[in-house]
Amino acid sequence: MSERRQRRPVSGVVLLDKPIGWTSNAALQAVKGLYRAAKAGHTGSLDPLASGLLPICLGEATKLSGFLLNADKGYRFTCRLGVTTATGDAEGEVVTVRPVGSLRRESVEAALRRLMGTIRQVPPMYSALKHNGQPLYKLARKGIEVEREPREVTIRELRLLRLGDEELECELRCSKGTYVRTLATDLGEILGCGAHIAVLRRTVVEPYDAARMVTLESLRERAGQGLAALDADLLPSDSAVMQWPAVRVGEDAAFYLRQGQPVLAPRAPSQGWVRLYQDEQSFFGIGEILDDGRVAPRRLLVCKDP
């Protein structure tokens, strides 16, 4: 049987604990292959250096991946103090080496507070952001540096967990688009000694946290037990948007929504995005409340989770 014919229309979300050294795309392809999924997509790249939470959407759940791309993120990271690198992480060429001196916890926490709230970051050259169709990191590897526009990001929480002689560990909650390497570099400059990311682990992609993560090793073990064992690790598609209220409609209203027509729904909120269900449990998409109170379909699913 051909590889194409082996694929199946399975839908749901896998919360993968991406291992260090893997690209996000390589991890995605591994999970897609294990599930024999016809369609799959991840929800925001993690650097090969980073480990942790990489939600992978299968089948119809890929229609919801954009909402996770825009979600807040959470990380734990370790900064190596006294050394800056070209990439802002441990894989880059060393640029400067400076003495760390004696840092007190109070001074580090004061520096962290300066990075809280809405700040402007200049995207690093070693990033996947594109300039004239070329990823910046490809230009950087050729020794080319281009001007980058600063971007506003929001640092919601930045907490010191541990302070050592040459490193510190922090916990971070932030908006989409935050470059943790840039944050570490900026922190090093505020402290006057320089810094780079030595360890980076993502722990949150709202609404998900690390509690339900699975490793590639555990998925491979389940694959040996059959597809049913693998499917037991899938979260339902609507788990990606559980932060929005649910609107339940009957068969007739669901029919019109599937035709692209807005409907009036009982007990619907007055505004915002909603999850759409036919009757009590059958999730079939995302809607938005219009000014006149009707629910308009925005992203609909065509098949059920396993």
Keywords summarizing the entry:
306 residues, alpha+beta, Archaeosine Trna-guanine Transglycosylase, Chain: A, domain 4, 3 domains, nine-stranded mixed sheet
Structure description:
- The protein has 3 domains: 99 residues, 2-Layer Sandwich (Pseudouridine synthase); 133 residues, Pseudouridine synthase (2-Layer Sandwich); 57 residues, PUA domain (Archaeosine Trna-guanine Transglycosylase, Chain: A, domain 4), CATH 2.30.130.
- Helices cover 24% and strands 33% of the residues.
- It has 9 helices and 17 strands.
- The mean pLDDT is 91.
Main sheet characteristics = 9 strands, mixed
Overall residue-averaged pLDDT value? 91
The domain tally reads 3
How far apart the termini lie comes to 23 Å
Content of β-strand: 25-35%
Helical proportion, percent range: 10-25%
Q: Let me know the number of strands.
A: 17
Query: Helical segment tally?
Result: 9
CATH topology grouping of the largest domain: Pseudouridine synthase
SSE order, one letter for each helix or strand? HEHEEHEEEHEEEHEEHEEHHEHEEE
The CATH superfamily title of the largest domain: Pseudouridine synthase
Q: What structural category arises from helix and sheet content? A: alpha+beta
User: What are the segments in which pLDDT stays under 50 over at least 5 consecutive residues?
Assistant: none
Give the overall form. globular
What is the CA-based Rg, rounded?
Answer: 22 Å
By CATH reckoning, the class of the largest domain would read: Alpha Beta
CATH architecture of the largest domain: 2-Layer Sandwich
